[in-house]
Amino acid sequence: MSSQEPMWYCHECNSEMRPLMVPDPVCASCRGSFVEKMENPSDDPREFHRGGTGADGLGIDPFLLVLQGLMDRGMSPRRPSSPRPNATPGFSFQVRSGSNGPATISIGGSRTLGNDSGGDGDRIPTLSENGEDGQPSIAGPLMAHYLMALLGGRGTGDIFGDAAQSGRMGDYVFNQEALDQIITQLMEQSNTSRPVPATEEIMQNLPKDVLIEGSSMLEKDCAVCKEQFKLETEDPAEQVVVTLPCKHPFHETCIMPWLKSSGTCPVCRHQLVPQPEHHTPPRDSPNTGSRPSSPSQPRGSRPRSPGRESDTGFLSSLFGMIGSGSSSNRESRNARHNRSNSNPENSSSSSRNIDRHLPGGWDELD
Amino acid sequence: MTSISSRRLAKELAEIHSEGCPVGIELVKADDFTCWWFTIEVMGESLYQGEKFTLQFRFDSGYPISSPAVQFVVTDGKQAPIHPHVYSNGHICASILGNEWSPVLSVVAVCVTLQSMLASCKEKQRPVDNDRYIRHAPDNPKKTQFHYDDDTV
């Protein structure tokens, strides 16, 4: 990875950076030309300033030295560090991660954070709150961000283990990949538009008929297994027919597993329990049974695609997911508006059951 | 005892063999009740004229209560159609494969739907979040909770 290339050291402003090649290397911070590539840990230019008591010989790689340099400057602004011949101390470094190209982060220096050269109006309070005696300073939490950005970009596993390797550490992400992963995870967990199963009570109360000779049912098919109802079956359970309120008949053994995942009629999508808005068939065309294409256009506030264009949609569905309160509000609102709903109380309690079997849910495959 | 899924799939397969597939759809293989392949091409005038895509269905034991895992095959030189709802890894963002799946639908019905999805495409392009999605997409498209916000294509 490119960020493993050695940093350069500026002897003029004591910063570690990647120089600007114009075409000779100059310091990215102070534009000084007295810069040195830190290729050889045993000949670290910083030792010259520190008096040779550095990490030499401890087997710590140059990156750690860079980190140490950052800590020295950023975390302990009150401690006078190495002599600064230049009046605009500061440094910058680049983080390369993924395909986003290098991001240059500058800390200190005349045009960056925490320096007194700007007027008060230009200052960012959280960054300069520790500022004293004109030293560059940076608040701890922010420094943590920078450090993590560095770590993430570098993808090093040897310092913080796998966490750093995957670009994630605790609640932090520090590269695009890790952020993608989290968003993907959230999308998979998001259940804002998943079907709501029918309640036990609803299922028990459905009219059940045992097929008898001469029943008009015998001419019909079960739309789930696509087989005609018949009297002679291996399994006597297949002679029990359940008729949904929309008059569509099914084998009991066929429809019950479905209702446990979605409280709708498979044929016409009649709702036995209120479904997320996403699912609601258009009121004016209740019979959309084999409508195989896209879902009905939403009215109003359906959460929009998180993974696609809309950030606000993502946030709202995220919050909808986390805040069960808002989600159940939505459902009860749904319930009130839906005349076909027979049991709003039960439905909102069962709708929070995340572990239920989902249609389109993932069972063992292969 | 044969499972509901294999009984239902056997019935669908028998119908495909006896009645054939709709125009533009051909069965490639259905050696068992876990994985079937079809080719689909769009008939008539469309952006996909002359292109033929391979569609893979994977069934679990919950079929048809649970939806099949449907995606375009993108191995062995096969490619997914360039379409706003089809990711370059072959995954398809279509509501009937997820939330709007119904056991009334069948393998052939899904083929026909996807065929018409392609037929009505107005501009060949990948989904806007294609790169992001395919980087971390699960192997099985059913593990992805797609959000369907576009009914026009």
How are the secondary structure elements laid out?
The complex is a heterodimer of chains A (366) and B (153).
Chain A: E1 8-10, E2 16-17, E3 20-21, E4 25-26, E5 35-37, H1 45-50, H2 62-75, E6 90-96, E7 102-108, H3 125-128, H4 140-154, H5 162-165, E8 168-169, E9 172-173, H6 176-189, H7 200-204, E10 208-210, E11 240-243, E12 249-251, H8 252-261, H9 311-322, H10 324-337, H11 344-350
Antiparallel strand pairs in A: 1-2, 1-5, 3-4, 6-7, 8-9, 10-11, 11-12
Helix pairs in contact in A: 9-10
Chain B: H1 4-19, E1 25-29, E2 35-40, E3 53-58, E4 69-72, H2 107-119, H3 130-136
Antiparallel strand pairs in B: 1-2, 2-3, 3-4
Biased composition (Polar residues) (chain A): 89-115
Keywords (chain A): Metal-binding, Zinc, Zinc-finger
Pfam family, one (chain A): zf-RING_2
By DSSP (H or I, 4+ residues per run), the number of helices of chain A equals: 11
Rg from alpha-carbon coordinates of chain A? 33 Å
User: Main sheet of chain A, how many strands, which sense, barrel?
Assistant: 3 strands, antiparallel
Q: Helix count of chain B, per DSSP?
A: 3
**Helical proportion of chain B, percent range:** 10-25%
Major beta-sheet overview of chain B: 4 strands, antiparallel
- Low-pLDDT segments, ≥5 res of chain B: none
Q: What oligomerization state is this entry in? A: heterodimer
Taking all residues together, what is the mean pLDDT of chain A? 62
